[in-house]
Amino acid sequence: MNEMQSLRQWAIGAALGLALSQIPFGIMPAHAANELLQQALTQQGQIGSQGQLPVEEFYQLRNETLAWQSESAVEALVAALNTLESDGLNPADYRADRLMSAFQNSQNAGESAQAAFDIQATQALLLALDHLERGKVNPRDVEPSWDVARPERHYSLLRVTHAVDDQDLERAFSLARPASSEYQQLREALSQYRHIATLGSAPYLGAREKSLRPGDVDDDVTTLRQRLTLWGETGLLTADSSAYPMIGVQVAGGDKRTFDAELEAAVKRFQRRHQLKEDGVVGEQTRLALNAPATSRVDQLRVNLERARWIGPTQSSEPRVWVDIAGYQLHYIRPNGQQWNARVVVGSSRRETPIIHSSISHLTINPSWTIPPTIMREDVLPRVRQNADYLAQHNMQVINMSGAQLDPAEVDWQRPGGIMLRQVAGSSNPLGRVVVRFPNNDMIYLHDTPAQGLFRRNQRALSSGCVRVEGVREFAQMLLQDSGSRYQLSTLLNSGGSDRNVNLPQRIPVALHYLTAWPNAQGEVEFRSDIYRRDASLLAALQRAV
Q1: For 26-35, 279-288, 454-463, which range has the lowest pLDDT when averaged over its residues?
Q2: Of 535, 545, 546, which is closest to residue 299 (Cα–Cα)?
Q3: Which residues share a beta bridge with 399?
Q4: Most CB within 10 Å of its CB: which of 188, 326, 407, 425?
Q5: pTM summary value
Q6: % of residues, the chain, pLDDT over 90
Q7: Cβ pair 186, 89 in contact under 8 A
Q8: Which of 391, 387, 418 is nearest to 404 (CA)?
């Protein structure tokens, strides 16, 4: 071969190589695209790793073809990622602000860069789907008592790939997003309160010595109307001269300084949504709720959307009991689809009711009460030391670790050690006549109580951790009936004796959850007190970048 022929062949080879480098993945040889994709997957640690995003499976379902090699596809992905704000998530966690520029850079940098970008875009999509389905934050990182493993993926990855092909990424997100009506109502509330936050603020209600009441005539009543209007009430300022300077204040509704029946109804609606006494009177607690910044409600909704994602896979139409701790409510979904609701008393801020997932196994009829160690140490022993008759007055027995009864006079109450206290069954027993039990590590149960007046309070974080249930006897009878038991509760209660355990033939799932914003039966999102101060740590975890 002479020098001229060699030069000609080198020129042809160089031109062919340059041409191949410009061939898009969609039309370059399949084996070459597959090889580059596999190299990129290996470099980014996606092959053979456990517990990571299903990136390799995504491409296997696509026959090893790339997904994000057109501008329209990347634009559709970015647009969909930006909608995650409606779920309380941050689109920047999924590179929504950087994907387009990264795509453009990769298109000018050759096949390896294009493959690497494609995987990054897929990772962004799959991470968003994972967070929508299971939550961004691992609940065990912020809820030490969380006792359920995070669920496996339940959405169809094949359907996701079809949505990608159609550039319909919102359809892909809908496969992972919780489908419950409560989750959708929280999303709608987040949109509403974000809009409120953009409106600026109305004047704040100042502190007062006396509450504002129906019938009052006061300048603060006008401010009250403005605050309620900010929070979504309508028709309260239609004749306000400050809002409409050309209309006199006596037109269509009279003096807006007057606390009339229409305003009273609006106050009651606001109180119902904020777990306040629904009396139409604006006292200190109602004033503070009215003056809350809209941004604080946005944060509260974001936090509880995350909690809704945690519990989404456990919420279903199957028979189940769940206790809404911060909402002071128990809900029982019966096998026939009916829902039974009851007010509850939960643990105080000193003795929090933990989050629990379990199943109801049995009832205890006419229970005695073995006093938990913390209550015995912190509550009972100080009283016994002050009053030698305390045990007798409260029908309490002293027993050893084997259950044998001891003489209280022979116990050194300064250093009692090795004893337990048990309150016998009866009308004054704190557990009442029925206990509903389920396995858990915290010795928590649902039970009756002689202190029925506590259920009339609005704030009911008053117990030592266990949950007192209003109407627990009706609840217990339904559990017996719905689980196929042959027993009637009335017969059991009248049979005499104490501490009779009655197993349910079929266990019924039970969950205790902590939610500080949640829809009520009317579909209105209620804002509850953060009685256990858990919102701040979860919000901080949500705001941390991925």
Answers
A1: 26-35
A2: 535
A3: 405, 420
A4: 326
A5: 0.85
A6: 66
A7: no
A8: 418
Residue with tokens 């990129």: 40
Whole-angstrom distance, CA of residue 396 vs CA of residue 380 = 10
Which residues, including other chains, have CB under 8 Å from residue 164's CB and lie 6 or more apart? Answer: 67, 73, 125, 172
Residue with token string 């809209």: 294
3-state secondary structure 185-200: HHHHHHHHHHHHHHCC
Q: Which residues pair with 358 in a beta bridge?
A: 510
Q: Which amino acid is present at 99? A: L
**How far is the first Cα of the chain from the last one, in angstroms, to the nearest whole number?**
60
DSSP SS3 for 160: helix
Per the CB < 8 A criterion, the answer to whether 455 and 343 are in contact is yes
Segment 56-91, tens digit of pLDDT: 999 999 998 999 999 999 999 999 999 999 999 999
Q: Long-range contacts of range 206-215, CB-CB < 8 Å, 24 or more positions apart? A: 207/284, 207/287, 208/287, 211/281, 211/282, 211/283, 211/284, 212/259, 212/281, 212/282, 213/259, 213/280, 213/281, 213/282, 214/259, 214/260, 214/261, 214/263, 214/264, 214/280, 214/281, 215/258, 215/259
Residue-wise pLDDT for 177-215, tens only, equals 999 999 999 999 999 999 999 988 789 999 999 999 999
For residues 41 and 272, the model is more confident at 272
Tokens 């309070």 sit on residue: 457
Separation CA 373–CA 392 (nearest Å): 19
